[in-house]
Amino acid sequence: MRDLYKRLGISPAASDTEISAAIEACQHTALKAEASVVLGVKSRREEYDRLHALLCDIGRLRARLGLSHGQYWLDNAANDFSMSPDNDHSRHEALVHKVTQAVALHDTFLRWRRYAPWIVAGGFALITTATLAVGFVAG
To answer: Is the CB of residue 81 less than 8 Å from the CB of residue 12?
Structure first.
């Protein structure tokens, strides 16, 4: 779906007179006809505005996830709702952070793994000693 506002060079908040003027000034006949049918009727424009807002939200989400500007999106009508990549909230940084945490946890596990048999044996000995001591005191 094409972004009619973007193609006509107007804001989604444009007035009816601005939209009519942009449609009249449009040189592309197919775009002019589509814009007249969709934006020229109030009920259709309201429905288009809801859909337009949704598609803009999806474009922002794709940009946040780093999915914008893939080879299959370029030079296509689908590119109308693409946003520039959002490097402030890059998914790459979050993934690097998670991998770093996983590596640190794995390293800790490897350090403590060699002590596991001794910890289990010591725990068993402690429990056995405590049980025997309680038995002697009680008996």
So the answer is: no
Packed helices 16-25 and 29-39: angle between N→C axes, nearest 10 degrees? 160
Average of pLDDT values for 85-110? 78
Cα gap 79→29, rounded to integer Å: 21
Q: Which of 59, 80, 11, 3 has the alpha carbon at shortest distance from 35?
A: 3
Q: Which of 20, 26, 12 is nearest to 40 (CA)?
A: 20
Residue indicated by tokens 């007179």: 17
State the Cα–Cα distance between residues 74 and 95, nearest whole angstrom.
26
| 39, 19 contact by CB (below 8 A) | yes
| Distant-in-sequence, close-in-space partners of 49: CB < 8 Å, separation ≥ 6 | 12
Report d(CA 2, CA 79) in Å as an integer.
9
Which tens digits make up the pLDDT trace of 57-87? Answer: 887 787 777 666 566 555 555 566 666 655 5
What is the end-to-end Cα distance of the chain in Å, rounded?
A: 86
Please give the Cα distance from 79 to 59 (Å, whole number).
9
Q: How far is 17 from 72, CA to CA, in rounded Å?
A: 36
